[in-house]
């Protein structure tokens, strides 16, 4: 989930891989209207299986990325170990594409919880 301050009621779910990334304008992303994204709490979820990654905002499916089944790490690196990263970015190519409003500082990211569940395959 990503939210850019220049678009305050929009959140995006984005896949970044070797083949699909913003540096070559091939990222797989879906932006959705999320009222109060900057000042309200929302439930952002990701279901990650060997076949697909599904993104949800407030329990509504917003984006899905399907494994192409080729075994190419550049299109599906999601069978490797990963870390959860929570990032409050400021400026940059995307976050600052309409300029940077320094009057918004200081800003905070409030997170109530992060949960990770693993489904055991039988």
List keywords for this structure.
122 residues; mainly beta; 3-stranded antiparallel beta sheet; 1 helix
Task: Lay out the secondary structure.
Layout: E1 2-3, E2 10-15, E3 28-33, E4 44-48, E5 52-57, E6 60-66, H1 92-95
- The mean pLDDT is 89
- Structural category is mainly beta
Roughly how much helix do the residues carry, as a percent range?
under 10%
Number of strands: 6
Alpha-carbon Rg, integer:
16 Å
Overall shape: it is: globular
- Estimated share of beta-strand residues: 25-35%
Number of helices: 1
Structural commentary:
There is one protein chain. This protein has 122 residues and is mainly β. It is built from one helix and six strands; from the N terminus they run ββββββα. It has one helix at 92-95; strands at 2-3, 10-15, 28-33, 44-48, 52-57, 60-66. It has a three-stranded antiparallel sheet, with no helix packed on it. A three-stranded antiparallel sheet has the order 4-5-6, with no helix packed on it. The radius of gyration is 16 Å and the shape is globular. The mean pLDDT is 89.
